[in-house]
Automatic annotation (TrEMBL):
Pfam families: Glycos_transf_2. This is Glycosyl transferase family 2. Belongs to the glycosyltransferase 2 family. InterPro entries: Glyco_trans_2-like, Nucleotide-diphossugar_trans. The keyword Transmembrane helix applies. It comes from the Bacteria. One of its GO terms (molecular function) is glycosyltransferase activity. Residues 42-175 form the Glycosyltransferase 2-like domain.
Length: 367
């Protein structure tokens, strides 16, 4: 039995090493500097009860150093004064366009329905999506995201991080999980298999949307307007990754563990609808890390060839540290790297709890 456990430990270690070696595809990727683009862009923001966030984060969007864009703000049946805030911005800036969505029985609390109406409202063929609680991290955000369209790509994957709070351990956990997710989807896309994007910073053409029949194939699911859309339509030829620091957005992270877990449950609820190859790869990546840590603890407790076990674990952690450090430097998340072994273990077992909870019941609304 001990020999079998040791064999599985080495097997999972090799699998993890293989994944992180593949992730060097992202760490070695060079950012493309934006040209003097003048492509007509529509920035689309879906807002549900986001009055205060719109006051704070819509101005940086309107202040973009880009000559040709409009901003479509979708009021998704808000109960606060979101509509009034949008109308105030609309009165001040002619680039702001309003889509006011009312709830109905067929599409109750369905973000995809609201986004579809916003896309139909857009006058421009190049669409950039972000959330109402997101702020571009430079005045060149649109210019960088539009670079992908200049490369004749129809889908552009950007980085959507979270604002930093140096005093919060939860904040570091949230940003570490976001960093790891970005490493995965950027690396897979670079290797020719784009499988997801994040709605906090995502772009695609209206042609891509209509050719793909929008969200029709997963409209019945409450989540997945970003990752399922990309999973369905992205490929090596049509996808561009945009990870320049000036191209990122940051949004307000959840302030308590319960709210964050609910958010992650909602995101994880659609993973079962990914393409089979993506489910296999993601499942293998998670399972190998899960059993690596369990077997490491068991073998050390039993003191089974502990020098060899520690040496193997050290090699795995060293490669992970290099990938995290290089990726965090690209995405400006360097303060989470030194905590990565603790954050990784906590995240792995948290994801296991989310999997169990979603197996019992799935979240029903996007907010």
């Amino acid at each position: 039995m001990v020999t079998i456990l040791l064999g599985f430990f080495f097997l999972f270690s090799i699998i993890i090493l293989g994944f992180y070696l593949a992730f060097f595809a992202f760490t070695r990727d060079k950012s493309i500097n934006p040209g003097e683009a003048n492509l007509p862009v529509s920035v689309i923001v879906c807002a549900k009860n986001e009055a205060e966030n719109l006051k704070n984060f819509l101005p940086p969007i309107l202040d973009q150093d880009y000559p040709n864009f409009e901003v479509i703000i979708i009021n998704d049946a808000s109960l606060d004064n979101t509509l009034e805030v949008i109308e105030e911005f609309q009165a001040l800036d002619g680039r702001v366009k309003l889509v006011d969505v009312q709830n109905n029985e067929a599409f109750w609390a369905n973000k995809k329905y609201a986004l579809t109406l916003g896309i139909k409202k857009a006058q421009n063929p190049y669409l950039i999506f972000t959330d109402a609680d997101c702020a571009p991290q430079s005045r060149n955000w649109i210019r960088h995201m539009a670079t992908g369209f200049q490369q004749e790509k129809s889908i552009v994957l950007g980085y959507g991080g979270y604002f930093k709070n140096s005093k919060s351990l939860l904040n570091k956990l949230i940003r570490f999980e976001t960093l790891l997710t970005a490493i995965q989807y950027f690396s897979y896309a670079k290797l020719g298999n784009p499988y997801m994007g994040v709605g906090r910073n995502l772009a695609y053409t209206s042609k891509q949307f209509y050719d793909q029949r929008g969200f029709a194939n997963h409209l019945h699911l409450r989540s997945g307007d970003d990752d399922l859309f990309v999973n369905e339509g992205a490929n090596f030829e049509n996808t561009f990754i945009c990870h320049h620091p000036e191209a990122s957005t940051r949004s307000v992270p959840k302030a308590d563990l319960k709210s964050w877990l609910h958010q992650k449950r909602r995101h994880a609820s659609v993973a079962g609808f990914y393409k089979t190859k993506d489910k296999v790869l993601l499942g293998l990546f998670y399972a190998s890390r899960f059993f690596f840590w369990i077997l490491l603890a068991i073998l050390l407790i039993l003191q089974v060839q502990w020098q060899l076990v520690l040496g193997c674990a050290g090699l795995v952690l060293l490669l992970q540290a290099i990938v995290y450090a290089k990726s965090a430097q690209k995405l400006q998340e360097t303060d989470v790297v030194w905590l990565f072994p603790f954050l990784e273990v906590f995240l792995i077992f948290t994801q296991f709890g989310i999997f169990i909870a979603n197996s019992i019941s799935k979240p029903r609304h996007w907010k």
